[in-house]
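Notebook entry, structure prediction.
Reason for the run: the old model in the group folder had no record of what sequence produced it. Starting over properly, with the input documented here first.
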Amino acid sequence: MKMTKNKLAKGFTLVELLVVIAIIAALAALSTPVVLKQQKKAAATEAVNNAKQHFILMFEFDQDNGRYPGDSTTMSTGAVAGTSNAAFKEFFIASQIDSEDIFYAKTGWSVKPDGDIGAAPTFTTALAANECGFIYHMKGADEAFGTTAASATPLVSTPAIDNAFTGTEFSVNAFGGRAVILFNDGAVKSLAITEGSTAGQGVVNVKVAGVDTSLFTAANPALAAATTNLPAL
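New structure, fully documented this time:
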């Protein structure tokens, strides 16, 4: 009787499988930094585009009220704004906007707005906790800036290290070492953050008599006095 051999399909050996896994892991390790960099760049681009729209709202508000929102004379509550959320909410109350989306910035602590802005005239649910990723800057404790302020005056900024922004420290990691700042001439700039002694935190500097000076201090000629920075809710 003639004997036949059954051919078995050859599979991967353990060594071959380990080699394939090692190659995949190496490729993933090489591509991860690139992917993360692109994600941060995209987040910064989104923040720039949103900040540009802030200026349009602020300019229109100034035309109707003589200054930007925030102080007791421009707030619908009659009291100075305590948070950036409250100041920005005036744009809803003034019927200038009906979407929260432009107030989002991917800071690490902020969340995407849920689209629930509540009903007129108070819009109580607009810009709920952590839905505002931008920090709003006022001239003084009860004085908002306006279009007549110096063109280099910073009005809105991101990414703060947390929602209780003090006016100087930015998150180095959120946008890949950049901060997005809206100035009073309508320009939105992506500026380098100088990391300080605390890892992951830093300031944006301007040159004053050739010396690096934090943008949000009284030493900045465009301010002449330290700004009042409204924390985000």
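Summary: Residues 18-230 form one domain.
The old model has been moved to the deprecated folder.
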